[in-house]
Amino acid sequence: MKIKETTIAVGKRAADDKRKLDLPGTLITPDTQSDTLLLVLCGFSGHQEHYVEFFGKQMGAEFSVYISEMRGRGLCNTDRCIDDFAQIDSTMRDEIETDRVFYIAHSMGMPISVAAKNRHGLNVAGLYGISTFPSIGDTRTKDPDIQIKSLQHRLLDSLAGINYGPLGVQLDDEEISEPVRFAIAGQDEVTGTTHPATAERFVSSFNRYPDSSSKIFAGKNHCFNKRRRDYKPFNKDDPEILVSDVKEFVYRTIDEKYL
Which residues pair with 218 in a beta bridge? Predict the structure, then answer.
């Protein structure tokens, strides 16, 4: 396995901007060439280096893995983040020389990556969302019925579309026709799944996608660790639990789509 810290230059204000901004990332490649690329996008405030040891390396023995963070770690104009991810996708496809690409995205990274796929017409084999949410409002409604919205939910919905940070793009507004899997942390104090009804709400919402499956991982917090508000490094407590589910989803999708 080879591990290389690198940067990818993206347009500063638009994809075609000649002025560039360097986004940090880590490329992990197996000893034998893989024709499958996993693009990992960190969540809000996430540093890419925190996803390497207990997540990226676990998959890098079998797949090519590139881990990237959002500009400003998500505290920025979301259109820029969406364009950035599309450019990261293009750069890494050329680097690895493959079109068999999966998106593995954490939290806010999931709606960003899905929006990039949709707006830029990207061909993606499958998507895997970790500790993500249908909308910010859904994280504040403790009811499994997706037709019911709390007062906080309605207030946050009214702020949606400000095009900045976690409110800038909502997964509920995006379409996913590709195979998609959602890993829901059962003790996620950030997305509110410490209340079981909220976790059930997420499952119901995610089921609207035609080729979707979800799993609730008991005892895991927002960054898939055990202790409350223990966010780094990502997935350090029993890392194989999440990694095994990602691998199973990737291999199953490959078998169904390519073999």
Answer: none
